[in-house]
Design a protein that fits this description.
With 205 residues, the protein is α+β, with helices and mostly antiparallel strands. The chain is built from two helices and 17 strands. The N terminus is likely disordered.
Length: 205
């Protein structure tokens, strides 16, 4: 009888210990996986974007190597697929991705322009349209950290157009997304009514 009582107490202690431990480990894992992680990735090779997280799913488009993409979320360790939200929406194999450069050689944001530079980085989510108008044909949605190239006119001035209380900037789609998009598109860079001092584009170095 005494032995059974001891066994019962021992079992209760173990159950309590396990119950207290699980939430702690779960919290540590969650913090570790979400700390200081960027949604910016680059494709290592030409790779397809799938409609569903499976290679047997429909391929929406092919992204060429060195394409900058934005993740919809940070994948967990061991995930074979992850959803992306830019330059298109769908699923891509994690093995085909690498982190964006963060060294001194990477393109960094500058608050001042560099004469003749056509490289820009998206600061906030924006839509690219075929014409400089909110009613223009939709091309794609761009998310923060996406690199694009603007068109210049005589005197190294960015090609722009004022319409519907916006300053629109023309984007070279062929250079920004080689093999994926062609021609030119327009992005509403400045809202002259609501945020006249803010820009959707930042300079690269």
């Amino acid at each position: 009888m005494e032995f059974q009582k001891l066994l019962y107490v021992f079992t209760l202690v173990n159950i309590a210990t396990i119950a207290l431990s699980v939430p702690v480990f779960a919290q540590i894992t969650q913090i570790s996986s979400n700390s200081s992680q960027s949604s910016c990735r680059v494709t290592k090779v030409d790779t397809p974007v799938f409609k569903e997280p499976s290679t047997s799913s429909t391929a929406i488009r092919i992204l060429s190597a060195k394409t900058n993409i934005s993740l919809a979320y940070i994948p967990a360790s061991g995930d074979k697929f992850v959803r992306i939200k830019s330059p298109t929406s769908g699923f891509i194999q994690t093995a085909a991705l690498k982190f964006c450069q963060t060294s001194n050689n990477a393109q960094n944001l500058w608050s001042k322009p560099i004469i003749g530079s056509v490289c820009r980085q998206i600061v906030q989510t924006e839509t690219i349209r075929r014409q400089p108008s909110t009613k223009g044909d939709f091309i794609t949605t761009l998310y923060p950290n996406t690199i694009v190239f603007v068109n210049l006119v005589t005197g190294n001035v960015v090609k722009s157009y004022k319409s519907e209380n916006y300053i629109w900037v023309e984007i070279d789609l062929s250079r920004s997304f080689p093999g994926e998009l062609s021609g030119n598109g327009w992005i509403a860079n400045t809202d002259l009514v609501n945020t006249p001092r803010l820009s959707s584009l930042a300079y690269c170095r």
